[in-house]
Amino acid sequence: MRKMLQSDDSSVQQVLAFARAKIINGEYPPNTKLLPKILAEECGTSLIPVREAMRALESDGLVTFIHNRGAWISPISIDDLNDLYSVRIPLEMNAVETAVDLTSEDIKKLHDILDNADAAMNSNNKAEVVKLNKDFHFAIYSHSKSPWRLRLIETLWSHAERYQRFSLDFRKDAADREHHDIVDCLAAHDNRGAAKAMGVHLKTTVELLNESLKKSNISEVV
To answer: Are residues 101 and 124 in the same domain?
Structure first.
């Protein structure tokens, strides 16, 4: 059993982080029941923060509550993937195009994140790669000065991360080049070029994810 969590608020956040990681990396597979008692035991806490965390997971689209059947890990499908990216792509391209005030320190931070992601991938730390990928994108999006856009993108990312594990092995080199193309444009203050590069990156990702899911026989809801 894990060490007892410290406070109500921190307990909810820690249970949420724990469960999210399990869902994203596939340890809690789609269409499996999420049992509050088991989750509480795994986190070393009571049922109260677990129930709150499960409601937050529902808000993120990661968990579905079914009447008289409890909470289930939400399914994934190619249709869901394509719908998700059809919303993500224009939002994130716009966030890049409107990102302002990036300093040389900000550009260095982006390069550092990419270097760390490369090291994590080489050590097969896929959970860290997923985290750093998000850090990279949001280090850019946070400069778009639109809190509402950022919230929308954050919500979409919470669900999109479930699909990323299907692309990590074969997208490493191409994604790295695409990320560097984005940074190069931002360093040259070419936000329009950076937005275009982001669009290419996301469109290529979803195309390859479609292929990967089909090979994994996930053409239907699972």
So the answer is: yes
Q: Which tokens belong to 198?
A: 């982001």
Q: Which residues contact 206 (CB under 8 A, 6 or more apart)?
A: 81, 82, 85, 89
Task: Give the domain extent around 22.
Answer: 8-73
Residue 26, pLDDT > 90, answer no
For residue 221, pLDDT beyond 50:
no
- Asked whether residue 30 falls in the same domain as residue 114, the answer is no
Q: What was the pLDDT predicted at 176?
A: 87
Q: What is the Cα–Cα distance from 135 to 138, expressed in whole angstroms? A: 5
**Residue-level pLDDT at 218:** 62
Sequence-distant contacts of 196-202: CB under 8 A, at least 24 apart: 196/93, 198/92, 198/93, 198/96, 199/89, 199/93, 201/175, 202/85, 202/88, 202/89, 202/92, 202/93
